[in-house]
What we know:
2 domains; 0% helix; mainly beta; five-stranded antiparallel beta sheet; globular
Amino acid sequence: MATEILVNDGGAPARILPFTASGAADTLSGGRLVAVDVGGEVGLAATGAANGIGFLFTDTSSGQNCSVITGKGVVLNVSCTGAVAVGDLLATNDNGDLLDNSAATTIYAVAMGANASGVGYVKAITL
């Protein structure tokens, strides 16, 4: 993956934890929100998920080891869908992408950058 996901390494309040990618997944892209499944592996967080644990550090495939970035106040390039503006509250959709949804019950990040095209990565700070 050419996109750097973690923006503020060094003194960041982030932890990078090892997991195994869920057997139900094909390819998981870096910057997407993941949740722990019933087998203790990670897969893409579903729409409205309140159990997102962090963001994939790099691309991975089913059954492979992967790294998940967790923590509050971490600045990341997160995978987004739909137009995003600076200051938007970001929730998740079905494929672990974040989108502008201030009405969602669980907000995972605040956009620090904009993406008018609605596809790609946006700089955000985790909550």
